[in-house]
Amino acid sequence: MEKKIKAALFDCDGVIINSAADISDAVNASLKHFRMTQLSYAKLKTFVGNGARALIERAVRTSKGLSLDAPLPVEEKRLQEILKYYLDYYYSHAIIKTKLYPGFAKAAQTLYESGVKLGIVTNKPTNILLEILEYFKIAKYFEAPIGADKVKELKPAPEGIFLALKTLGANPKQAIMVGDSYTDIGAGHAAGTFTAACLKGMGDKKAMLAQKPELILGYAAEIAPAILLSNMTGM
To answer: pTM (2 decimals)?
Structure first.
């Protein structure tokens, strides 16, 4: 990082929170309700990261024994019914098994108190995001919580990052996007920010690293000392 970092943006699932279990339970509840075969936690975990619709499309195809690029085996009206059931169920069960990743609350507080502006750019709905942030008592640190319903194009499109930076009054060249998937790193590069990849997240590591992030982290909390050191030394 060659310039001081004035804004840090984070993905949510796989970066701030480990939500795979609650998301998987909500998807399986939806599949069960619509009399489709439920899927394993390990399989469903790989479907997270591109928004709720993509998640449900992948789950429905797989439940029907189809490849992920096969035509949808249900009509659009039925897909919307499944999607609505999933969103309603997940909103009511979003913090049953979900946990903050180690050290994140302290890292967010440290960055906030050091004057770094914080935002979240996620492909999950804003209402669920805000509930999660409030539950874990970290909402006060984030001035720009940007969910899927705030943009027309989801990550890896950069729209959410541009919106967050506008809200924070920050320049892309003095910002960093922290994520756990190729969509996060791709969005960051498309927006012109620095990027940091979390290896302990939920996303496809190979696809993420292929996007050539500037920093490699274990957990997202590790970004705090990296930013503070960069800002202190100008490196």
So the answer is: 0.93
